Predict the structure.
Amino acid sequence: MKGYQLVVLLLLGINLAANGQEVPVPYRTIMGRINADLQSGSSDTKALSAIAALKEDGSWPDLNYANPDYDPLQRIKGIAIAYSGANQLYGDTNAYNAVVKSLQHWLKLNPKNKNWWYNDIFYPKMIGEILILMRYGKIPLPAGMEQSLIARMIRKLKTGDGANTSDEALHYLYRACLTERKSTLDSASTYLFEPVSITDGKEGVQVDNSYFQHGKQQAIGSYGAVFASNSVNAAFYLRGTAYAMPAGQLNILMTYLKGTFFKTIRGSFFDLNVRGRGISRRDSLKGAFGGLITKIKILNPENTAYWDAAAKRMALKEPASYGITPGNRVYWKSGYTLHIRPAYTFSVQTASSRTLRTERGNNENILGKFLADGATNIQVRGDEYANVMPVWEWDKIPGTTSRDYSNDEGATIKHDWGIPGTTAFVGGVSNGLYGLSVYAQDIDGVQAKKAWFFFDKEIVCLGAGIKAGAGEEVKTTLNQSWLKGEVVLDKAHATPGWVWHDHIGYFLPEGGAFIVSNHLQKGNWYRINQSQSKEEISGKVFQLSLSHGVKPSDGHYEYIVVPGLKDAKMMRNYNLSMLRILSNTADLQVVEHKGLDLLQLVFYKGGVFLGGDFSVKADKACTILIEGLHTENPIINVADPAQENTAIQLEVKLPGLKEVKKLNCVLPAGAQKGATASCRLNPGHN
C-alpha cells in the first residue's frame, strides 16, 4: 500500500524528503523566474501599435499567415508582456482582447512554416511564453483556449541534437510549469542539460572548447550561442531546486562561456568567423548579452569581474580593450584560431578533411563558398564588418586566396548542409599566448600553402606554392571592410611598402601587384539569404588585395598586419626590424621575432631549416613554436596539423645550447590529436 501511495504522490508532483515530509515540486518558483525574465522585454509603444493594427478577425494585414515566421506570435507576446507586467497597459481591456482574438485566429488557422524549426521549436516556445505571461495578467486566458494552445505545444523531442535539443527542452519546461506535470518537468530538465557535456566529434562542446553543430562544423557563435543562452536560462530557472544543473555540467558551461564564447565578441560585435550561415542575416554580428550575463553572475559569482567587464564592453560603457587578457588559442578540432590582444582581435577559420565547410541551408549563406578557406577577422573597435555582407564581393573574403570571378556564381555554394573540407594539413601550434596556424589549401582549382604567425603587435601572413589552372586571375585578399576615413599609402617608395586604413596597418615587405580600392559597392540581403529583403544597399568599401596573375604556377605572398595603429604616422615610424621572415616556400615557412625571442616554423614535409646560428630538422610535417630561442633552456612546442602521427623526431641546434639536441616529441593521442605538445630542453641531456 505504501508503494502505491508513493507512486500516486509522484504522479501528483509531490516529492518526499528524507524525513517523509512532502516537498512540492517547485513549479510556481520556476514559472515565476521565467515570467520575471520575460517581462524585461516590454514596450508599451510597440504593443499599442500592434493593438491598433489588429483586424476584427484577429489577424494583422501586414503578415503572411501562409508561411509565418516570428510574427504573429512574437507580436502577441509583446502585447502579453505589456498586459501582464508593471506597465501602463497592465490589465488593459483592449490589450487583453487583442491577445485573445489573435490567439483564436492562430488556433483556427493552425499555420505551418516550410522550415521545421519554426514548427517544432519557435512556435511551441513562443506559445509557452505567452501562456506563462498571461498567467500573471489581471484576467487569465479562457481555460479552453489555454488547454488548446498547450496541446499545440506538444512535440516529440529530438535527443542528441545539441542546441536544437535544448531549444525543444525549453518549451517542455514551459509546458511542465503550466500543466504541473512532474513527468514533463523530468524530461525538460534531463534534455535541457543533455547538451552540456564534452562530446568528442559529436554535436556540442568539443574537447578543445569549440562547438559543433550540423556535424563536425564550427558553430561557436551560431548554434553555440543558442546552446549558451538556453543552458544558462535552464540553470538559472532551476537553480536551488532538486532539478538544479549538476556542478560538473555547470563547470563545462562556464568554461565554454568564459574560455571561448565571450572571447569571440569584440566590443559589442561577434567575430565574423563564428556566426556560420547566420553571417547572411541582418545584424547577425551584433552581440548583446547583458541580460544573460546578469544570470551568469548569479550562477558563477567567482568570476564576477570577468562577466562585468564583458557586459561593459558590450554595452559600450567601456572600450573594446577593457578587461581583455592576451591569449592565443588553436582550436584543433574545428580549424578555428583566435588571437586576442587588448588592441585587437584576429581570427582565422579553415576546414579540413576532418570537418565540414561553412554551410548553406534554408537558402541562407548562398555565397559563402570561401568562408572556410583561411577567412580572417580583424577587429579593433568591433564593428568593422557589421552588415557589410550584402555589398561584399564574396570571392574576396578577407584572408582568402581565390579566383577573381566576374559574378556571384563562382562564390555560390551548390549543396546544402555542409560540404567536407578537402585537405588534412590544417591546424597549428600554440603556447596559449603566441602561436601559428596553417592551411594547406586545395579547393576550387586553387592550391596554396597559407600560414599565419601571431605575435603581440603583429600578425605575419605568408602564402607559397600558389597554383591554379583556370582562366580567372588569382588574388589574396588582405581585407574587405567598410570604408572608414582615409586610406593612406606609403609614398616614400616607388613601390608602396605599406597601407593604412581604419586603425589597421598592412606592411608589404616585397611590394608586389597589390590593389587598393575604396569604391561604392552595391547589393542586397536577398542575394545571400532569400528570407531577407531585396532592397538595395550601398556603401563605400575598403578592399586590399594582392594579385598572383592568371594561372600562377608557384605564386607567393608576404604581408604583416598591425592592428591598433591610431594614425598613418605610426606606420612611417614603425619598427619591423624585430621580425624576420626566414623562409616562405611550399615546403617550409619560418618567422623569427627577435624581440620576443620566438621562432615559428611550418614543415609541410620532413626537412631541415638552416638559419645561420641555429637549425631545426623534423622528420615529418609539423608546426613548431620555440620559446626562448637564444636561452639555455628553450621550450619547444610541436603539433601535427594532419593529426596522423604519434611522434615527431626533431634535431635542433640552437644558440643557447652547447650541442645538437635530438628530441622524440610524443604527440597527444585520441581526442587530443592535433593539440600542442610542449617539451623543455635541458643542457647536457638528449
User: Anything to note?
Assistant: DSSP finds 14 helices and 33 strands in the chain.
